[in-house]
Write a structure and sequence with these properties.
This protein is α+β, with helices and mostly antiparallel strands. The chain has 5 helices and 25 strands.
Length: 406
């Protein structure tokens, strides 16, 4: 017995001295699932690959591809940080599975997360479609305050596969992708900041369903087919109140310097003031467009300056989020910190009292060479809106050229 005990001790010692093989993740297609309210599942696909010594992920939402390259592994623990946004996934893994939480610390939000290797279907569909969602839909959503707001559904269905988005007066709900199973529509989007899933019963002329945002919000909606429906013009929703003749502000940059439109840099130049937040996907789309526009038109006088309304709980945290955005997207125009600790629009409007309201992040104020506000554009129609995004680009370019020519 003593010999056996000694042998077992020796084996144990030898095993403890043997380097442990690093745990690995299967490369290829995975299905991920977040759990929203009512235990509704929000799925999305991603492709995982090892690049050099590190893992990278490509997340898919219809035509959208998001590259995630900040992935940390230690033993069986995994941390996935999303580009630009502060949200992250923390959990444990095996070769073919991940289980953990999607966390947004500043908002105290935690959403259950799991992923499995080898599944290509975003939604498992047991029933062939008996309805078709292709077309334009006039929708009424009821928000958490029991207020009704309008949206425009734009969908295309091929077989049982559905893609498209909902546009609202404050922006779009990203690249939505899903299926029609029988008469049940299920579509979702996850971009590292927002987790959206829509479910609805559909017939030839109507939808009746619910919109889930993570596990903190549920909004019922009804919709009807209306090919002629259009939302209120984005240029008519926000305006300068009576009694004010200028748009003015003074907010700090990362160096602690107060910046305003009175600074020499902005005098006698057309300026676009962008009201935004680093946490906001529509703002990110708009910021990418502005960055590219300035690069392609570097020989003109146009200036852009952003006012960031951040929900990070500290000033340091807010500027860290802004710096992350600047570095990842290559933003060279100034981003000032207008507010931290909350992205509440009522508080934002108090910082900019000349506006009738801050209805949306983002909002862009167009100012001419004399300092006069010429137009205010509420929201942003991003790439997911297709023709509307193309229309915005043409209108933006034409209006900026008009300001530059004066």
């Amino acid at each position: 017995m003593r010999k056996i005990a000694s042998l077992l001790i020796l084996i144990s010692i030898l095993n403890s001295c043997t380097p442990q093989k690093e745990k690995s993740l299967a490369e290829g297609i995975w299905i991920a699932e977040l759990t929203a309210m009512d235990d509704v599942i929000l799925p999305f696909n991603f492709k995982l690959a090892k690049v050099a010594e590190n893992y990278e992920i490509e997340m898919y939402n219809a035509e959208e591809v998001i590259t995630v390259n900040e992935i940390e592994i230690k033993n069986d623990s995994i941390l996935i940080k999303f580009p630009v946004y502060e949200g992250y996934i923390a959990g444990t893994f095996t070769e073919n599975s991940i289980e953990g939480k999607f966390i947004k610390e500043s908002l105290d939000r935690v959403v259950p997360f799991k992923a499995a290797y080898g599944v290509k279907e975003r939604f498992r569909n047991a029933n062939p479609p008996v309805e078709n969602s292709t077309g334009i839909w006039e929708a009424d959503f009821e928000n958490d305050e029991k207020e009704i707001y309008k949206a425009k559904g734009i969908f295309e269905q091929t077989g049982d596969k559905v893609t498209g988005t909902f546009r609202t007066e404050t922006g779009d709900y990203r690249y939505l992708e899903g299926v029609m199973s029988g008469d049940s529509l299920k579509i979702s989007a996850f971009d590292g900041a927002h987790a959206f899933v829509f479910t609805a019963k559909v017939n030839d002329s109507s939808m009746n369903g619910a919109f889930y945002s993570g596990n903190h919000s549920k909004e019922p909606f009804v919709a009807k087919r209306n090919e002629a429906f259009e939302l209120t013009s984005s240029d008519s929703l926000t305006y300068i109140k009576d009694g004010y003749d200028k748009f003015t502000f003074s907010f700090p940059n990362a160096d602690g310097n107060q910046i305003s439109l009175e600074d020499e840099r902005f005098k006698n130049k057309p300026v676009v003031v962008q009201i935004m937040g680093s946490w906001c996907p529509n703002c990110l789309d708009e910021t990418k467009y502005y960055v590219n526009y300035l690069k392609e038109n570097s020989n003109n006088d146009l200036e852009i300056i952003a006012l960031a309304f951040e929900y990070a709980k500290t000033k340091e945290g807010a500027f860290k989020s802004i710096k992350r955005l600047e570095d990842r997207i290559g933003v060279e125009y100034p981003i000032l910190l207008a507010q931290f600790g909350s992205s509440d629009k009522a508080l934002a409007q108090e910082k900019l009292p000349m506006l009738n309201h801050v209805l949306s992040y983002p909002t862009s104020i167009f100012i001419d060479r004399k300092g006069n506000v010429r137009k205010i554009h509420t929201g942003f129609n991003g790439p997911a809106t297709g023709e509307k995004f193309i229309e915005f680009q043409k209108e933006f370019d034409a209006f900026v050229k008009e300001l530059l020519a004066e």
